[in-house]
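[step 3/7] fold_predict: job queued, chain A
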Amino acid sequence: MKKILTFTANQEGFVLPYILFFIAISFIIITADVHLYRDEIHIAQNHTEQLKVETLLQMGRTRFKDELTSGMDMPNPIAYEFPYGEVKISYTEIQETMYNLHLTIRTDKGTIHSLTNQLQLADE
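[step 4/7] structure written:
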């Protein structure tokens, strides 16, 4: 005589709720991973823009300092174009070797950052 399994002979649908539960859990996990991945991409893009701003700050300060020490007649404000964006510097001479700089940085993606900085020239 054949032995009949209880969960296959029962007509109440024993297996279907478990399968639906595992499918729902899988769907929730996959959806959460997609959202995490999208957020990581956004964070990476913001970090890249921040690095561009910091790079443009250093490049602008260095070029301004080089032009200032070379004795060139400098307009106020002065603007510099770089591959990653542009830097606009307005300056005020505090002392003979100290300048107060107001920098406005615009990246190639349109991010704008403004800050105030002091530049101390080396005493000769």
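[step 5/7] annotate
The chain has a mean pLDDT of 86.
Residues 34 and 50 are 25 Å apart (CA to CA).
exit 0
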